[in-house]
Amino acid sequence: MERVQLARLVQWSVKLRGRKRLQKVVCLLREAGCQMNTEFFLHHYGPYSRDVAEACDALAAAGLLEESTSQNPAGVEYAYELTDRAGELLQQAAQHPKLGPALAELERFQPLAQRLLSEDVATLELASTIAFMHRTHQDWHTSAQKACEFKKVDPASQSARDAAMLAREAVEWRR
């Protein structure tokens, strides 16, 4: 994953709350067809990418992302904001021969990205798992059933239906 793409996602969200949210949004964007050079595998919380985690850590270590933590009932929640320096570098990156095309690719998906960034994290978690499984099962019903089984969610629940609709919306977004 190009770090500028991750920085742009954080910029669009103003303050991105949660590492899990970031993982799931990138996964769904990738499933929608956005070229982000990431690999995902199925993890306890659904699809996970070391590429996304490493890009986030590298931006924070370089002082381009400000990372803060807060306590919530589920544990520690991380939040990310761009530093002023990162905002300036993003403006310059659009003209860079390698980074410009990576940013332009992501820009095509801005409406979907902003929709996903505003979504409930639990819905994102199940939706990304459904979309991830859709690549293997090729059938929405089977994908949703398998994802609900994996996540221990009642497939007849409203949350499962909402997540299935979001997964389908993301995957079929470009069509």
Layout of strands and helices, then pairs:
Layout: H1 3-13, E1 16-17, H2 19-31, E2 41-43, E3 46-48, H3 50-61, E4 65-72, E5 75-82, H4 84-93, H5 99-107, H6 110-117, H7 121-137, H8 140-151, H9 158-171
Antiparallel strand pairs: 1-5, 2-3, 4-5
Helix pairs in contact: 1-4, 2-6, 2-7, 7-8, 7-9
The rounded Rg comes to 16 Å
* Total of DSSP H or I helical runs spanning 4+ residues: 9
What is the count of distinct domains? Answer: 1
Largest sheet descriptor: 3 strands, antiparallel
Q: Can you list the strand order of the major beta sheet?
A: 1-5-4
Shape: globular
Tell me the structural class: alpha+beta
Strand content: 5-15%
Order of helices and strands: HEHEEHEEHHHHHH
Got a strand count? 5
Taking pLDDT < 50 over at least 5 consecutive residues as the criterion, the unreliable ranges are none
N- and C-termini, Cα separation: 24 Å
Task: Work out the helicity level.
Answer: 55-70%
* pLDDT averaged over residues: 93
Description:
With 175 residues, this protein is an alpha+beta fold. It has one domain (3-171). The chain is built from nine helices and five strands. It has helices at residues 3-13, 19-31, 50-61, 84-93, 99-107, 110-117, 121-137, 140-151, 158-171, and strands at 16-17, 41-43, 46-48, 65-72, 75-82. The strands form two sheets. A three-stranded antiparallel sheet has the order 1-5-4. The longest helix has 17 residues, at 121-137. The mean pLDDT is 93.
Highlighted features:
9 helices, 3-stranded antiparallel β-sheet, alpha+beta, 175 residues, 5 strands, two-stranded antiparallel ribbon
